Amino acid sequence: MKRNYDFSQGTRGPVIPAGKGKTRVTIRLDDDLLAWFRDRSERAGSGGYQASINAALREHISREPWERALRRVLREELKRVG
What we know:
Layout: H1 31-44, H2 49-62, H3 66-81
């Protein structure tokens, strides 16, 4: 190993830029939550726990709000009962 290295031409930031439509962010997550996503990704063999978190967030925002879903189900059941 060299005694000194020249970093004068080095640049800061990620080595591989984020893909199109992706933004690098820093977020603090609870340790147990992060461990759950990492474990889930390892078991699936994907190793992409960040992609799993992204998918979970996307699924959450695309869900019908619970109040609207409850009203819809009640209307359907009341109509069925008559």
